[in-house]
């Protein structure tokens, strides 16, 4: 790699890690950067997934205080995310490239709309959620686990926009604190990414020189992004999530036009 190539992917991964820790959609920055420096598409996709995995872990660590509030539900959520990630990966392997390309913008559009109107949807579903009990105000019911399974399958099938859809799913379940939502999103994203990391590494589909650079700056971006997000107003973060979702949706609709 030339110094210019290193600079391009390093900066892209830094931004991607930060964006993923706050809203999701970081792949929009990192994947095109790998293509720009000459990495083949399949290898670029594999390398991108591996490089952004630690960034999600770093983001979850930065939100560890908020994550601890879900200690009762977190073990089962983790199992559900892992199982969904495997199912989504297998589904992807059975889907043709043409069909997958046509689905991408619609998947993103649905995720963005779900989040944008999550409060209205949450209100409509209020009667179906479990009532909070004393000392357990962060309870996740059976419907929440089913919802997370669906999101995890989506994440294993199509990583881009996964964070936005996960935020939407949690918001619809009635969680309003964006920092708590981001804490869960970062941890569960890391679990789903772990499936891809194992698969691509075993398959030998990773360009390690490029990945090594992006691992460092992507992880730094994930941690710094989460640290900065904890200091920002929830309304600002919410608007940023919707903006990222809209940009991704328009971009992929344009690519498939």
TrEMBL record:
InterPro entries: TM_pro_TauE-like, TSUP. It is found in: Cell membrane. GO terms for cellular component: plasma membrane. The chain crosses the membrane at residues 31-53, 74-93, 99-117, 145-172, 192-223, 235-254. It is a multi-pass membrane protein. Its main location: membrane. It comes from the Bacteria. Keywords: Cell membrane, Membrane, Transmembrane, Transmembrane helix, Transport. It holds the Pfam family TauE. Belongs to the 4-toluene sulfonate uptake permease (TSUP) (TC 2.A.102) family. This is Probable membrane transporter protein. The lineage of its organism: Bacteria, Pseudomonadati, Pseudomonadota, Betaproteobacteria, Rhodocyclales.
